[in-house]
## 1
Amino acid sequence: MPGGQGTGVARGLTASNIAEAIDESINRSDGRRFLVSVKTGKIVHVNLTILSHFLRTLKGSGIYISIDRPHKYIELLLRKKEIPQEGVYYVDIATRRSGGERGGYSLLSIGGFLWLKILANTFEDLYIANGKKPEKVDFFNMDFVLIDNAAVLPAFNSMDSIREFFSELGNLVRDHQKMRTYIVVPKDLHPKMFETLRNFVDQIIEIPDEWVL
Amino acid sequence: MTYNISRIRTGVGGLDDMVEGGYPFPSSMLVAGSAGTGKTTLALQFLTQGAAEGERGIYFATLSEPIQWLLRFTEGFKFMKKEYFGEELIYQDMGGLLKKMGDFNDFMKAIEDCITEYMPQRIVIDPVTVLMKKKGYREFMFDLSLALKNWETTTLLTGEVQPGEIYPVEVAYVVDGVVLLTSRIGKEGSRQRFLEILKMRGTKHITGAHMTSITDQGIQVQVGMGML
């Protein structure tokens, strides 16, 4: 059973119960924002597991925010693993920043130094647009927001803007009972950033690195 | 605020101490040297170190050497455990593809197919310099280095050093680190081997050529000894 009240730390998970931990996070009534702590080398596995569970097992939908690497990598990975992508809306920050190519699925690419503010506004716009642009995003009916990898945010943003972003994100999803937010970070990459993010989540899900090769 | 660059242990005795605890993760490294200096041994130590720590590695062989020959020649090393192969370590023969491929897109696709199937933390391409004969090699090396990092891996590319060159320049300029393996005849007339860190981005590293020995534990760096 991962965690308890508040920001309890979940321990002892194995490969087979990552999905169980996600199910438990979905069923919680006292928290909807989760900091997923992983070993650096396992972040792709964990992102894949979370996406697979929501998109294939639960047939859900949500937003994948790609910060550290162009989203085409996770898109290719999902395709190879035959995980349906109709339910995922990519917000790709890394591609624009690195000048890469844009992919084929629903994609919003955001660039510029102030992109965190732009990103927050984008979420707000999605809220406002809900119902008016049904062909694009049904934000209120989504199940998750997955942020990969928040530990690199300080390289491009001030800590004030980072706090502001996560505060605004929390405000946006606060009244949305269904949506869960997962901030996936390697704990060892930026310990101070990890501590900052603890203030914006309801629980930490700690993934032990031995869960899968 | 500052980042802790994640490190991945090299598996080579003494080398971790020269590079703040290990190679950066993710990153791409060139291990350069002439024949017999220990490039493949160093690369296998890197992969088996990961296997011992529960990480998966892929060994891309570009010369079509059958795996049984690789295992036969390395069975004297205690770090080589056959049980790693097939689970923690994946051996992928790329030689056949290299002979028939039209351009580097085929090679890149084959590598990405393998990465998405096995999702490794460690990769070795041994040797990468056989690709130099193909047109578009320089651009490919840049794309490959970037892609491997985006796949969240640390990759060792081994490179054969040609007479008159220090290291394969076309590879060295795109990678994050260069480990040079050399040898020379010592005063006693015996051949001595050396390891030198020429480049290691984001890492305080110990410079100079340090003497190495190859034992049943693989390559061991005697840091500070026999420095050139």
Note: The first helix of chain A runs from residue 18 to 27.
## 2
Amino acid sequence: MQALYLALALFLLLNLAAGMWRVLRGPTAADRMLAAQLFGTTAVAVLLLLAQATGNAALRDVALLFALLAAVTAVAFVRRAWPDQASDHDPK
Amino acid sequence: MIPSDYLSAALLIAGAVFFLAGTVGLLRFPDVYTRLHALTKADNVGLGLVVAGLALQAESWAVVGKLLLIWLLVLLAGASVAHLVAVAARQRGIKLWKR
């Protein structure tokens, strides 16, 4: 099972590298943010697999933290960091 | 390998396939809204299957609880984020993709 965990973690890491293409290409800020969001979830899965493979339980706490941070990041992006010149909706 | 190992391996591999589908969708789909659709599959089902596969191997119920907690947190975050990004994209005038 050890080999399977590590192989899958590597596979997910390669997925993550492929997702970088979307971060580079855009075209909108939202597309880049969605790619970053997928990185967050993939990182959680990789960390859970590594926690099981290495028997290091602390990695599960790291995964929990990543899940939490990914949510906060996306909300901060939508509410604060995404410039909104195109419309006059939702004044802040 | 005992039978539960095979089940666990099948679940983990199925989860990885969903992550692959999410990444391919993110790269190939034409606009923000369709990419959101690809992303949520990886978030919800991909991670769900990986968590289910790992839960079968977990050494204690506390670990199973923590895995489920992580998955539920990602589910909740993924749903809220997908909604927020879609609404914000609409407000900023990003056009829907038309063939």
Note: Chain B has a mean pLDDT of 86.
